[in-house]
Amino acid sequence: MKLAVSNIAWPATERDAAYAILRDHGVTGLEIAPALFLSESSDPFVPTDGEVATAMKRMQAAGLELVSMQSLLFGVTGAALFEGEEARGNLIAALERAIALTGRLGIPNLVFGSPRQRAYPDNLSAREAREQAVAVFRRLGDSAVRARTRIAMEPNGRAYGTNFLNRVAEAEAFVRAVDHPGIVLNFDIGTLHMEGDFDAIEAIATAAIDTIGHVHISEPQLAPAPADPAQAARAIRALRKAGWTGWHSIEMAATKTPLADLSAALGRLRQAITLADPVPTP
């Protein structure tokens, strides 16, 4: 399995120790929030060549490669998908900036979450919101392809303060509506739990497999993930049976004891992988 972890699981000050933990657990992929990966930069979305070289050297020394980027609107104000042309223009400009950074860093995937910036108002119907968003992401998909990356649409549960693409199936349907090689699905396991869909994970994974570009092993509210090795094993089996061979990336927020909780989470993931693998017949 291709295993990755998002760097939102630790503060920037614990970077080297976290990288060592990833290496010790056989993790070879790194998903980044730019503000944490390039924390010494005055603008992590437009870092200097020297800042990039330093960050890459530290990561590569631990045997890691960049596989995804998230927190695309970090530090951006006045950006929203459905709150008028100015706010939409700000959002597009910010995402174009993020796409440009992935091009510099050679990152093949960006995760678009940003739940509050994509909630649509009461005076807009679900159909109108979808039509507007399809147009925006076709444009952004063009930019992503030019940068040799893809934007993975992340379903976010209602508890995160959005009403747009709450469920995995809704995000899948949106990706199909955009119908662009630069727009894919972020298969988010935490969202399946939040929206009550986890018990249908096998059917959901099978239906969505041709749209999936990235997988998040996550829990509601970004708690340490996976929480339950047996449930994680079920998710791994469902995705494997559907045909997924790409990255599985742990997405969890930093805790008060980030390194200990990161190590424990990776231990549970290893248990899950063992459970997911069939026992060979003697």
TrEMBL record:
Q: Where is the Xylose isomerase-like TIM barrel domain?
A: 21-270
What keywords are annotated for this sequence in UniProt?
A: Isomerase
> In this record, what's one Pfam family?
AP_endonuc_2
> Which domain of life does the UniProt lineage start with?
Bacteria
Q: InterPro entries this protein is in?
A: IolE/XylAMocC-like (IPR050312), Xyl_isomerase-like_sf (IPR036237), Xyl_isomerase-like_TIM-brl (IPR013022)
Q: Which SUPFAM superfamilies match?
A: Xylose isomerase-like
Q: Report a single Gene Ontology molecular function.
A: isomerase activity
* Name under which the protein is recorded: Sugar phosphate isomerase/epimerase
